[in-house]
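PROTEIN DESIGN WORKSHEET
SECTION A - STRUCTURE
LENGTH: 376
TOKENS:
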């Protein structure tokens, strides 16, 4: 048995839509399929404006530009995240301030935000880990009181919600990912979600190399020109056509992942009861998209032993982030809000992600549970 950690899934409609885009003779960005994806994303996320970009990294960089983050500013974010979350702000000359995560959801600990604030704080960037929402209400209240931007790194969270509100649409700006490891994919790709109409207008400009080209095509100006900073953030129509097939089936794809997630969860309940591992925690009122299934094992040695046993059986499991605050670039460009980020350091050494993808065979999942029972 050879079971990868992830296997990209196709719905069967992708090639037909790609051929349709080719036949239309428009392969650069912002064609018919891009517009269809933007509209469907606005519907799925309940966002006033959604704009396809070439990656979630690009969406985060656009968010930093829209928030006017610059030299001397600080942006609060969790250390337990991917490098793109921090890089978006470092590229603008700002300093990331790393905050510890909650021991239950592994999301930014909202109780530690107040102490992390400084006169230089410009924004809070939350990360919805594993598609489970951060505790957004107090975060949004604090940001409103201090006039701070809230940026949601919802790379893993399309289809997830916080008390009924889709993730990515609660803050001022949200970033989604369609990388091949995500629930909804286009190989590479992402989207920026914008709540404020004025920010939405500027987002169009920044995304189009700093020009008002989109307004020109809508007939709002008689010619387009350079009006702001910006870069080339558009994906091609080929990417958009592939993505549209996935977005049409988003509910079905997430539902099939949830069934796999629930099978792991039920199968590992006994091990948690015997305190041999800890399963993911989803607080009441939050709905998630089963982006990943992870377990927290006893210690690093146990995790290495379990990973080795799974690998020997042909089952690929992986750990996750090396905390940013302890990385060379994190130490150079950022600072930690506390002398130690104890939860972050602890979970990063014990967390193990299990194979989860649409089409994962029942026998493979049963074998993973069996080996955890034996080795954990």
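SECTION B - SEQUENCE
RESIDUE ASSIGNMENT:
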């Amino acid at each position: 048995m050879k079971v990868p950690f992830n296997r990209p899934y196709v719905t069967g409609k992708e090639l037909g839509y790609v051929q349709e885009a080719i036949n239309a003779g428009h392969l650069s960005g912002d064609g018919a399929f891009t517009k269809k994806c933007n509209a469907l994303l606005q519907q799925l996320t309940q966002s006033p404006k959604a704009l396809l970009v070439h990656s979630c990294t690009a969406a985060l960089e656009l968010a930093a530009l829209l928030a006017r983050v610059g030299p001397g500013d600080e942006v609060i974010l969790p250390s337990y995240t991917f490098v793109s979350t921090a890089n978006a702000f470092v590229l603008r000359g700002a300093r990331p301030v790393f905050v510890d995560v909650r021991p239950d959801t592994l999301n930014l600990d909202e109780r530690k935000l107040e102490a992390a604030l400084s006169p230089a704080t410009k924004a809070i960037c939350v990360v919805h880990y594993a598609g489970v929402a951060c505790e957004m209400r107090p975060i949004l209240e604090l940001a409103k009181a201090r006039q701070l931007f809230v940026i949601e790194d919802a790379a893993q969270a399309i289809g997830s919600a916080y008390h009924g509100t889709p993730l990515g649409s609660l803050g001022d700006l949200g970033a989604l990912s369609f990388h091949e490891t995500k629930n909804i994919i286009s190989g590479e790709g992402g989207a920026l979600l914008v709540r404020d109409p004025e920010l939405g207008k500027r987002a169009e400009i920044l995304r189009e190399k700093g020009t008002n080209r989109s307004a020109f095509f809508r007939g709002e100006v008689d010619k387009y020109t350079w009006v702001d900073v910006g870069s080339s953030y558009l994906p091609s129509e080929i990417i958009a056509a592939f993505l549209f097939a996935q977005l049409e089936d988003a509910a079905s794809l997430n539902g099939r992942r949830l069934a796999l997630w629930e099978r792991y969860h039920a199968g590992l309940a006994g091990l948690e009861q015997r305190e041999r591992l800890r399963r993911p925690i989803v607080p009441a009122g939050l709905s998630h998209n089963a982006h990943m299934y992870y377990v927290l094992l006893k210690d690093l040695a146990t995790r290495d032993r379990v990973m080795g046993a799974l690998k020997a059986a042909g089952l690929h499991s992986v750990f996750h982030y090396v905390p940013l605050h302890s990385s060379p670039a994190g130490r150079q460009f950022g600072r930690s809000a506390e002398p130690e980020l104890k939860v972050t350091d602890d979970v990063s050494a014990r967390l193990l992600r299990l194979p989860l993808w649409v089409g994962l065979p029942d026998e493979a999942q049963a074998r993973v549970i069996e080996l955890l029972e034996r080795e954990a």
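SECTION C - NOTES
DSSP finds 15 helices and 14 strands in the chain.
Residues 303 and 350 are 6 Å apart (CA to CA).
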